[in-house]
Write a structure and sequence with these properties.
Helices cover 38% and strands 37% of the residues. It is α+β, with helices and mostly antiparallel strands and 93 residues long.
Length: 93
């Protein structure tokens, strides 16, 4: 099992666009094989800051996720919409 913690910072004028796109990404990702959990959070202090907490069965499931149409579509648009993003993978100890 692998957990992903991803943080995203939206550009201010794209905040609502990013939120809507992320909510769609959650819906689609939850339907994927190997997806155990895919939760979206927004910072209580900063409405432009988003956090994903994801749990996947395997690295192979994550690799398949990164090749889906919904993920690739978001990635393409993210360059324009986001100030920054960081993705970290974690394994249980």
């Amino acid at each position: 099992m692998i957990t992903i913690v991803a943080t995203l910072s939206a550009k201010e004028h794209y905040r609502e666009t990013v939120l809507a796109a992320l909510q769609e990404l959650v819906k689609a990702s939850l339907q994927e094989n190997g997806c155990i959990e895919y939760r979206l959070h927004v910072s209580a202090n900063n409405p432009l800051a988003f956090l994903f907490y994801e749990t996947w069965e395997s690295k192979e499931a994550i690799d398949a996720h990164t090749q889906t149409t919904h993920f690739l579509d978001f990635q393409q648009k993210a360059a324009e919409w986001l100030e920054k993003s960081e993705i970290n993978l974690y394994q249980p100890v």
